[in-house]
Amino acid sequence: MSGIKAWARSLVILAVFSSGALFLVPKGVQKQAKFVLEMLLLLCAIVPVVWIVPGLGTAEKAWSASTQVSGDNFGVRQFFAKEMEAQVRETAKKLGMNASVTAQVASDLRLVSLTLTVDSVQDDETLHALKHSLATYMGISEDKIVFLVSGE
Known about the structure:
The protein has about 150 residues and is α+β, with helices and mostly antiparallel strands. The protein folds into two domains: about 1-65; about 75-150, 2-Layer Sandwich (GMP Synthetase, Chain A, domain 3), CATH 3.30.300.30. Helix content is about 55%, strand content about 15%. The protein has helices at about 1-25, 30-50, 60-65, 75-95, 125-140, and strands at about 100-105, 110-120, 145-150. Strands 1-2-3 form a three-stranded mixed β-sheet.
């Protein structure tokens, strides 16, 4: 019963916050802001109901069930890894490197390591600058970023 009270309380607080936020939004985007806030309220109302549907049990199972695509378990972790790989490929491309990237992501969505396979040998200064930039941007230590040259 206390869980239901907490859920209802959070919906009321969100509704009050949303109506207050609408007063701060300029008239030109008020329609869009109202739509976003209504969708947020709807999401907050529906998620606990999805969790208690028989067979789902926990939030993790509910998320896993809702992210299945064509029978494959396409989870958040795989999506996060693919997005990180795409960002690193784009960064390398801007530096003139054609690289294939493999990202390893932990179950808590923390980036564990990056492996970049480049087509040709790059000068050490460029590789060090890229490694330092990626480590800073991705929030991992530089020793977790590995460069390989294809053909070696």
